[in-house]
Amino acid sequence: MSLKDLLNTAASEILDEIIAIRRHLHQHPELSFEEEKTAQFVSDQLTKWGIPHQTGVVKTGIVATIESSNSTAKWIALRADLDALPILEKNETNYTSVNPGIMHACGHDVHTATLLGTAKVIYALKDQLTVNVKFIFQPGEEKLPGGASLMIAEGVLENPHVSEIYALHVFPELEVGKIGFREGMYMASCDEIRMTIKGKGGHAAMPHLNIDPILITSHLIVALQQVVSRNCPPQIPCVLSFGKIEGLGATNVIPDEVYLEGTFRTMNETWRAKAHQLIKEMSEQLTKSMGGSADVKIDIGYPYLENDVQLTQVARERASKMLGNENIVDLELRLTGEDFAYYSQKIPATFIRIGVRNESKGIIYPVHNSKFDIDENALLIGMLTFLSQVFLRD
Length: 394
Description:
Elements: H1 3-13, H2 15-27, H3 36-49, E1 53-57, E2 61-66, E3 75-81, H4 108-124, E4 132-138, H5 147-153, E5 162-175, E6 179-181, E7 184-187, E8 189-198, E9 202-203, H6 213-229, E10 238-246, E11 253-254, E12 257-266, H7 269-289, E13 293-302, E14 305-307, H8 309-323, E15 328-330, H9 341-344, E16 349-357, H10 377-391
Helix pairs in contact: 1-10, 2-4, 3-4, 4-10, 6-7, 8-10
């Protein structure tokens, strides 16, 4: 039996078990940095299979290791995230979330189950390993400052040093059975903007006696789009969007202040810093010119995610050997964010997308949606993708 067939057989044989694990995780989601029961469940699985691991990394993170018999073998890492989102699930399945208002709507249950299955297969075939493998089960991907940054600070990429790292992420736009790659820049930095626009409230029938923060805010939102349209270099992807406006007046009441929340995303650190400055300056100067003031807070989020070109090319070739070139697709650049970017800023990394869509089963909803679900055959594809990076290295 060829190595490819051996891996396929080994992963297929445990698929039902991994589906059950994924369903358990989906049914019992926990929010970022609160994944205590999830971490215990992962640890219990690893212990049952005899796989050595460390718990309590950034409180709820876990790092498992499987070593090659080759004493000179390098270390690589495979990463999955543990946390869920504050979303009320609307699916009607036998594994729907039992924790009201919390849901694995971004597929982290899939990532964790896939990595567990991969670890089980690798441990069973460890005599054939030519590399050492770290398995990073990471908390808090969905919440700043991001579990990746904290795990790196606690030395997850060191002792021993990791030379390259891989992650998978569900992709509802892509049919199950397909996986996607993109070399170089792939996902954006993502910063959170919070502003309070202050004026002077009063009766709406006498605006000359007030300083209207709603009017000021309307001008400011339009003006801030110039940060992107008139300042951002055309070769740099960039977006500035506001998703929350709160002005608690009434039909005949002008409020004292308006509160705004938005996001700024780009793929260039120099421009990112300059844009922050422009946003603050424009907000403060425009509001002042209209008689008000602005308190501006920009929370620095995740950096941009860059897939190492050479590593991604090789990863694509390995996956193609395992799954067939017809199942490999090119990904388009995205302005969504991911804290896996922190790893990509430290060592060669590649972030791979795995198709989970199945229109015939009604599995069509995007991530962060209350009806998100997957075709569970994606778990097999995910395991095989990870396994190809570990074993098909010639």
